Recover the amino acids of this structure.
């Protein structure tokens, strides 16, 4: 399968490049490509023309997002919108890596995918915006936001950032039809304000 990874130089992206080695994997990341530049994203996606885009690129510094919510929204929200629009343009499926931070963290039993988002910090709000953009841009496609370690048809919504490789590998496995194992599950609550 032809796969494009955004943020392929990060921790999750690096792990996925290795785990997906049996596939035709292309990646882009900073400084070569800034996902906040819509034209550049469209050009790069069109050139790669993948069947699946795994969108790992994000501004993940929770404290930095709290200090600069506009930057968090520009990268996580609008950057994701740019990737989703480019995927839509070429008919590619998209797997967006989201976060447990889209929930308040006040539910001890965890969350189900249908529960309303209720982020309590700038990072969570920017990732919730990203999920909104993926949902809107992919209304007629098979794109999804992954917050858990189940396949897209049953995406769970309580996802610790420390398990991002495992959840992404599991979601990607459902598309590539080959198992991908990266790490074991570790649970954590969303960060406070």
């Amino acid at each position: 399968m032809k796969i494009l990874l955004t943020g392929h130089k990060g921790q999750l992206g690096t792990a996925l490049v290795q785990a997906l080695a049996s596939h035709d994997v292309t990646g882009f990341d900073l400084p070569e490509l800034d996902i906040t530049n819509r034209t550049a994203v469209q050009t790069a996606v069109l050139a790669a023309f993948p069947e699946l885009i795994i969108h790992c690129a994000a501004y993940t510094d929770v404290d930095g997002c709290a200090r600069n919510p506009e930057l968090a929204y520009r990268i996580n929200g609008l950057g994701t919108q740019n990737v989703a629009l480019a995927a839509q343009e070429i008919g590619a499926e998209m797997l967006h890596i989201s976060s447990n931070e889209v929930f308040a963290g006040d539910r001890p039993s965890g969350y189900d995918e249908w529960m309303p988002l209720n982020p309590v910090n700038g990072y969570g709000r920017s990732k919730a915006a990203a999920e909104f953009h993926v949902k809107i841009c992919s209304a007629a496609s098979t794109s999804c936001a992954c917050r858990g370690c189940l396949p897209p048809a049953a995406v769970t919504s309580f996802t610790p950032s420390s398990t991002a490789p495992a959840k992404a590998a599991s979601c990607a496995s459902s598309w590539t039809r080959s198992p991908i194992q990266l790490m074991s599950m570790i649970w954590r609550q969303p960060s406070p304000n």
